[in-house]
């Protein structure tokens, strides 16, 4: 019988067609320290998912996703990809924009694969449990680096690179320039803070569920120290949102307030003893007593970048300058072309803020498409039953905190952060709208 949205028939308990999906997802995440290899895993996973789904369709076998999960995953993809396609029509660099747009098609079958990885209880336990383990291991690895000066995870990968290719993963200049804790991702990819903050719900919520308040507090403390030393203020905001949401559920309002006060005191003590952290706190303080120049220093030059984004929005309001076209359009919109930016020589690469990035690169049309996809995600969450919301809560919180608009961000249309974003979106859709197997009644 044809499966419908109104009557989602259950997936057979012994169905093993999607058994490899969790391993694709976990391999992709575990290999983020090697972005090129991780991207290869993503592409191969996308091809695998597309081939499997087509083959099962041709053979008339049961679908690996419920119609609702397939639909929401596809809608979230279109909300991300269609703005790229429309922006490429008259982009500043049409060749690069169309290449980026065509390459973005790989995300659709990959998102189906991710949704399949959480489509039944067994695969969901493996996938979400694996993400929790990766987050915990990378957190401990970062703390070891803070004490010993080297990340065991990245050191191991670097040794493997030397054995196979005869060179290091990062150049000596990149290692010398690293001004914060780099952890498993290494000094040439200083995104540890944002990555750990976005993955933190997959560790905090299960820790609270399995080990209660004490488990949650230990996980918060470990992640909090690692994130402070990682030095990304955007990651601090993301992690604060995760802690406030999960802490309200675990501790309640009064105890959460007490925890926040203790955390602020501990962070102040840590800032006083760690030079790199002290410098970032001092730079942030310039926003209150440094005038307009101090504000720009506090924002690491983002005020100038945001002014340039506003110029691009004015000049290309409908469909923007093209996805990842910010760097090409920046010289014509730079409000201070005669002086170097706080970030150094060369143009700014992206807007550092999700709303400005979408408007500058894909225009009002792109923003409307993003909002339409977000509205569908919210509608699915609102009308889902309580058990569905509970199993999707880690992915929901990770996605919401990552795209929270009142923060600064990495480039959502970049290869690395785009892959992170679509992964979280597909985990949310697949978990929320998974089809749970129905218990088989005992035979008479």
Structural class, please?
mainly alpha
Quantity of strands, as a count? 0
Uncertain stretches of 5 or more adjacent residues = 1-14
Q: Write the H/E string, N to C.
A: HHHHHHHHHHHHHHHHHHH
Strand proportion: under 5%
Average of pLDDT: 88
**What is the 3D form?**
globular
User: Strand count, sense and closure of the main sheet?
Assistant: none
Could you estimate the helical fraction of the residues in percent?
over 70%
Count of domains: 1
Number of separate helices: 19
* CA distance, first residue to last residue: 25 Å
Radius of gyration: 22 Å
Q: Which terms would index this structure?
A:
444 residues; single chain; disordered N terminus; mainly alpha; 19 helices
Folded structure, characterized:
This protein is mainly α. The protein has one domain (21-432). Helices cover 70% and strands 0% of the residues. The chain contains 19 helices and no strands. α1 packs parallel to α6 (121-148) and α13 packs antiparallel against α14. It is globular. The two termini are 25 Å apart.
List the helices and strands and how they pair.
Elements: H1 21-30, H2 35-59, H3 67-87, H4 94-103, H5 107-117, H6 121-148, H7 152-165, H8 172-177, H9 192-199, H10 201-230, H11 233-250, H12 253-273, H13 275-289, H14 291-298, H15 302-315, H16 326-333, H17 354-383, H18 386-402, H19 415-432
Summarize the structure.
This protein is 70% helix and 0% strand.
